[in-house]
Amino acid sequence: MRADPLATKSVPAVEIIDVHKYFGPLEVLKGVSLAAHDGDVIAIIGASGSGKSTLLRCINMLEVPTSGIVKIRGEEIATKPDGHGGQTIADRRQVQRMRTRLGMVFQNFNLWQHRTLRENVIEVPVHVLGVPKAEAIETANALLERVGLYDKRDVYPAFLSGGQQQRAAIARALAIKPDVMLFDEPTSALDPELVGEVLTVIGDLVREGRTMILVTHEMKFAREVASRIVFLHNGIVEEDGDPETVFTAPKSERLVRFLSSVR
What we know:
Layout: E1 14-23, E2 26-36, E3 41-45, H1 52-59, E4 67-72, E5 75-76, E6 79-81, E7 87-89, H2 92-99, E8 102-105, H3 117-127, H4 133-146, H5 162-174, E9 180-184, H6 192-207, E10 211-215, H7 219-225, E11 228-233, E12 236-241, H8 243-248, H9 253-262
Parallel strand pairs: 3-10, 3-11, 8-9, 9-10
Antiparallel strand pairs: 1-2, 1-4, 4-5, 6-7, 11-12
């Protein structure tokens, strides 16, 4: 992982402050604040529609918060009024630079279907970051080996299982050497028998000490790997604590009901 030599535990890798997000009249996020420091694994849980995916998309500016602040390594991402009561990106070059610190893994893989797995992995390093192609290929080979897909390096995504595609998507996210990995329900599109192979790869990354923000409905996995659990309900952080406390002694009646519904 790329590390900032001046970064300390007092400077979060990612920080969001009082983030609100509207889609038309619907307020999806209602003042969410969250900080992830180096080595944190934050699992965000909650019912469908609670704002979990929107929160992740606001961190890397795939969705621009209506109001609030997003900081990466202490640097605030600049926004400006969009003329309709919200905000828009003020400096696209800054956002592009900030996104190189964030590796995003989506629900539905988002691989380029017209490119082989290795071509998927080298695309951003070569064409966005300017990494020499030979170096990017060497890194891609190592990453595909690491996720168990080196033998599929020249295969197109359509010929792979969902689990294989998601593991390739993880390799692609790692190829930019991000400070923080963002996972948006990485197993939700998979058949049950394929979930384990993806969780194994994510678990290996946790054991390496990588910083992660993970939106998941896999409660057992979240309890095992997370350093913090954030329960999002109706766009608000309803509960935030260590896994043992959150899962065995929840304070919120809504969290009690949610955990009962998913066990």
